[in-house]
């Protein structure tokens, strides 16, 4: 049983390593773009859809605070029926908390919370952020400077705290590969999706 486990682990690791050499050169990182309109100097609304995220929200809010986001931009927490201290925590940092209400029966989950946040936003540009995303110094500005129109989505680096969490690398790899933008045939294929944890677009386009 032990030999079989280690054999499976070795084979899986080898597959990740080989596949990674084909994928890594195709990855694109956030870099300043000279194309299209820029959110910099414009009104920007950061929207965080959240439900019961009190235990995970502080690192994101701390990183936004370090970036001066609460002074430069509008930060909205779209509270989707939280029963913990999510709304109070966000408010203590200076977020504008919008309660997500009047949901029709078919409108469930994050998409409706994003839509509610967008409807209440005053910014010309929207930045959607998952509650467990954290920016490194200069990270938010790098994302905004990378925007060149349309929809920009960013798949965050997944930081592991426990060894067994490293096994989720397979699913992260599939999420990146599955949008066609980074495949061996990316020039022949059109992108088929976006990464939800961090997205930027014009409010007019979103609506």
Which tags fit this structure?
207 residues; 38% helix; globular
Distance, first to last CA: 55 Å
Largest sheet: 6 strands, mixed
Count the beta strands: 6
Helix content: 25-40%
Spatial strand order of the main sheet:
3-2-1-4-6-5
* Strand coverage percent: 5-15%
- The whole-angstrom Rg is 19 Å
The helix-strand sequence is HEHHEHEHEHEHEH
Briefly note the structural class of the backbone. alpha/beta
Q: Rough shape?
A: globular
Overall pLDDT confidence: 83
Low-confidence stretches: none
Number of helices: 8
Quick recap:
The chain is an alpha/beta fold and 207 residues long.
Describe it for me?
- The structure is a single chain.
- Helix content is 38%, strand content 14%.
- It has 207 residues and is of the alpha/beta class.
- It has a six-stranded mixed beta sheet with strand order 3-2-1-4-6-5, with helices on both faces.
- Helix 4 (86-93) links the parallel strand 2 and strand 3 (96-99).
- The longest helix has 22 residues, at 2-23.
- It is globular, with a radius of gyration of 19 Å.
- The termini are far apart.
- The model has no long low-confidence stretch (mean pLDDT 83).
């Amino acid at each position: 049983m032990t030999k079989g486990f280690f054999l499976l682990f070795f084979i899986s690791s080898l597959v990740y390593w080989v596949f990674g050499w084909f994928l890594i050169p195709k990855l694109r990182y956030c870099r300043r773009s000279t194309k299209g309109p820029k959110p910099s100097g414009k009104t920007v609304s950061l929207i965080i859809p959240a439900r019961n995220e009190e235990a995970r929200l502080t690192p994101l809010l701390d990183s936004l605070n370090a970036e001066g986001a609460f002074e430069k931009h509008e930060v909205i927490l779209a509270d989707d029926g939280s029963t913990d201290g999510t709304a109070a925590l966000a408010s203590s940092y200076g977020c504008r908390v919008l309660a997500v209400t009047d949901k029709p029966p078919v409108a469930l989950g994050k998409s409706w919370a994003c839509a509610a946040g967008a409807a209440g936003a005053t910014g010309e540009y929207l930045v959607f952020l998952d509650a467990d995303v954290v920016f490194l110094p200069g990270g938010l500005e790098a994302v905004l400077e990378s925007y060149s129109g349309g929809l920009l989505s960013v798949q965050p680096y997944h930081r592991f705290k426990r060894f067994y969490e490293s096994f989720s690398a397979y699913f992260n790899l599939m999420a990146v590969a599955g949008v066609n933008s980074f495949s061996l045939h990316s020039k022949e294929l059109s992108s088929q999706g976006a990464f939800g944890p961090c997205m930027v677009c014009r409010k007019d386009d979103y609506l």
